[in-house]
């Protein structure tokens, strides 16, 4: 039942991406073109998504002790902004601005045979593996503090 539910939620999300036009990279790129062919429809898509998600999360966390298909809610443990968050956000934003795809829109666009979506997803997978490698190599660890020189 869990996989059927996940599939249906993913299909509904993909349908929303396609119906809203967010699977079309030109539409997304027009959102970023403030001086040219600006298209504000992405704002309305985001507002619509937030108008459902925010009350939905509030309702779920108020009424449920645990998720339907899990033992506990998995929430971020970090409560601060660090290099990983800033770097990941920057890479996401730059990639979105260059390609016109975010991961959520690129996957449904694959179904339409967009070559640019295939290139984006391939690059995204490479990025995931590079980030995982760097994370395991402690690349993102906080820099070491200098040791004060002894006066001796």
Automatic annotation (TrEMBL):
<keyword id="KW-0812">Transmembrane</keyword>
<protein>
    <submittedName>
        <fullName>Membrane protein YedE/YeeE</fullName>
    </submittedName>
</protein>
<keyword id="KW-0472">Membrane</keyword>
<dbReference type="Pfam" id="PF20398">
    <property type="entry name" value="DUF6691"/>
</dbReference>
<keyword id="KW-1133">Transmembrane helix</keyword>
<dbReference type="InterPro" id="IPR046513">
    <property type="entry name" value="DUF6691"/>
</dbReference>
<feature type="transmembrane region" description="Helical">
    <location>
        <begin position="85"/>
        <end position="106"/>
    </location>
</feature>
<feature type="transmembrane region" description="Helical">
    <location>
        <begin position="41"/>
        <end position="60"/>
    </location>
</feature>
<feature type="transmembrane region" description="Helical">
    <location>
        <begin position="112"/>
        <end position="134"/>
    </location>
</feature>
